[in-house]
Amino acid sequence: MFRIRLLVLGVTLVLMIGCGSSIHPADSGEGKTIEGLWEVTSVQRERKPDPLQVGAQMIFTGKVVEFHPKAVQVADGTS
To answer: Any residues with CB less than 8 A from the CB of 55 and at least 6 apart, and which?
Structure first.
């Protein structure tokens, strides 16, 4: 469970950093938003691709983020 939470946090940070723009909503009245449904297109864990998470969905609504994994992972007992 800890790994999934860490993954969600990492993906969220990457999306937020990637959506940075030099135009801020306070400057022009038009701001880009990340609200909506996003699909995970690539994931790396310990510098190796993790294809099991590709296809998962994240839904951004206001200040709420929902994570819907594509596949259910079985705990390996190491977390």
So the answer is: 39, 40, 70, 71
pLDDT digits (tens, 9 = 90+) for 34-49: 899 999 999 898 999 9
Which uninterrupted H or E stretch holds 65? Answer: strand 64-68
| Strand bridging mode 64-68 / 57-61 | antiparallel
Please tell me the pTM assigned to this model: 0.46
- Residue in 74, 52, 37 with CA at minimum distance from that of residue 7: 52
- Cβ neighbours around 21 below 10 Å, total: 9
Question: For residue 11, what is the DSSP state?
Answer: H
**In sequence order, which residues have a C-beta less than 8 Å from that of residue 25 and are 6 or more positions away?**
31
Question: What is the separation of C-alpha 5 from the centre of its chain, rounded to a whole number of angstroms?
Answer: 10
Rounded to whole angstroms, the Cα distance separating 38 from 49 reads 19
